[in-house]
Design goal:
This protein is of the alpha+beta class. Among the domains are: 2-167; 290-336 and 352-442. The protein has helices at residues 2-13, 18-41, 57-93, 98-102, 105-127, 139-166, 169-187, 227-237, 268-276, 290-304, 312-330, 355-370, 374-388, 394-414, 418-434, 439-442, and strands at residues 129-130, 135-136, 212-215, 220-225, 240-243, 250-251, 256-261, 278-281, 338-340, 346-349. The strands form 3 sheets. The protein has a 5-stranded mixed β-sheet, with helices on one face. The protein has a 3-stranded antiparallel β-sheet with strand order 6-4-8. A two-stranded antiparallel sheet has the order 1-2. The longest helix has 37 residues, at 57-93. It is flat.
Length: 453
């Protein structure tokens, strides 16, 4: 239930009009409340206060109409600037990062402030009366409209500054990386401060015997799984559940989502309950799927290395942030894929992220598209050197050694200049040394000074 609510909340947050809609209703309620306060207090007791609006009905209409018009124009400008920023962001850094922008709370608050003030001014304007037998000018409400207009002006200045910052490469990369760090921290809160490797965490578990498949009822991405609820169901029914697709994986309607054993203890009602522990949606969610967060950051580097962009500096920055994410993952205590109930009986065989998957996701595509750039190759090796400082287990070091080998082979084919090749060789030696390999091992990874291509 909690996981479902989290997924629903994340989906709601990603809608750009979520907070603006709330602030519009707040502006409506505030306008009604302020007008009623004015009716209760009356104009005479407060007319002499210096900072309150002191004009008549005609002046009140002019002020409120001006504020409403200005807010409508600011909202229009904000929409236009936002659309332009989204287009630039999508074109330069990839479409996956658009949802980070649209669910940004600050952007939504700014737009909501303009729309809320617009609605507030209109409703207060409606209450102004200038008849022979009844004149009503809500002084407090009009003063509130003026204050809201000043606040909106401050928000507009803030918005312009934020938009300028939000389309800069470094800010976009940092924002995506911070969101991924937060997801890692939420999913794996126990930080060991050192290598979190446990024996067997890279192993795949075989399919269950005598199993019944849990078929997906939707097509989309697996966003969340209610782990505790699933273990409780499995314990109560005395069964074992094996995940057939990981969190963040794409599942097609009618294909196996999980398998349940033994068959004799399974019925349609139980399969339906297991299905309900999953949340399927149209988008991957970083909150429960930090690998998607790494993918978003890597996409920035891949886009920067495309022929249309040709921006190795952005790719280098991205590689540095990706290395930090790998280190963060490596130093976390990752729960075993074998999930037990309170009696210590195996109930769920999960598919969790592994160090190999994270390292491959972080380095492979950047190496593939950036092997002809000396700066990118050096940045990849520097990231591996930093990651090597955080891992102690030999199996994880072997994974990093394999990446050093792949980087070396790719660079040998793509970098022709002998001086550049020597610079790469120096960094290769440092990488192999950081992984506990001697000079004799490093010699096999060095680039020949003569270009192979």
């Amino acid at each position: 239930m909690i996981e479902t609510l989290k997924a629903w909340w994340q989906e709601l947050r990603s809608q750009i009009l979520f907070i603006p809609g709330l602030l519009v209703f707040f502006g409506m309620g505030l306008a009604v409340a302020m007008v009623e306060i004015d009716r209760s207090v009356g104009a005479e007791p407060i007319r002499g206060i210096p900072w309150l609006f002191g004009g008549g009905a005609s002046g009140a209409r002019d002020v409120l109409a001006t504020i409403a018009t200005a807010m409508a124009q600011l909202a229009g400008i904000t929409f236009s600037v936002t659309i332009v920023a989204l287009a630039l962001r999508s074109q330069q850094f990839g479409p996956r990062l658009l949802r980070n922008f649209t669910r940004d709370t600050a952007n939504q608050v700014v737009l909501g402030t303009f729309l809320g003030t617009f609605v507030y001014a209109l409703l207060v304007l409606r209450s102004v009366r200038d008849l022979e037998d009844a004149t009503f000018v809500p002084l407090l409400a009009i003063t509130g409209a003026i204050l809201l207009a000043l606040v909106s002006l401050g928000f507009f200045i803030f918005f312009i500054d934020k938009i300028v910052d939000s389309i800069q490469a470094t800010s976009i990369i940092a924002q995506a990386a911070e969101e991924t760090h937060a997801a890692i921290d939420s999913l794996f809160p126990e930080s060991l401060g050192e290598d979190g490797y446990t024996e067997g965490d890279e192993l795949e578990h075989p399919p269950l015997a005598d199993a019944v498949p849990v078929l997906s009822r939707e097509t989309g991405y697996i966003q969340t799984l209610a782990n505790k609820k699933l273990i409780e169901l499995a314990s109560k029914a005395d069964i074992v559940v094996r995940m057939e697709a990981p969190i963040g994986g794409f599942i097609v309607k009618g294909t196996p989502l999980a398998s349940v054993s033994p068959r004799s203890r399974v019925d349609e009602k139980l399969l339906s309950k297991i299905w309900k522990t999953y949340q399927i949606g149209r988008h991957r969610s970083v909150t429960s799927d930090p690998e998607f967060g790494i993918r978003q950051v890597v996409d920035v580097a891949v886009k920067a290395l495309s022929p249309s962009m040709n921006d190795p500096t952005t790719a280098v920055t991205t590689t540095e942030y990706v290395g930090a994410l790998v280190i963060d993952f490596a130093t976390r205590s990752i729960p075993s894929n074998l999930r037990m109930d309170y009696r210590g009986t195996l109930r769920v065989i999960a598919i969790g992220p592994t160090f190999r998957q994270v390292a491959d996701l972080a380095f492979d595509q950047i190496r593939e598209y950036g092997s002809d750039s000396v700066a990118v190759v050096l940045a990849l090796l520097d990231s591996i050197i930093r990651v090597a400082g955080a891992v102690r287990a030999e199996p994880r070091k072997e994974i990093l050694v394999s990446h050093v080998w792949k980087i070396s082979r790719a660079a040998a084919k793509a970098i022709p200049d002998p001086v550049d090749r020597e610079a790469v060789n120096r960094r290769l030696r440092l990488a192999m040394e950081s992984l506990g390999r001697g000079e004799s091992d490093a010699m096999h990874y060095l680039l020949p000074l003569k270009h192979e291509g």
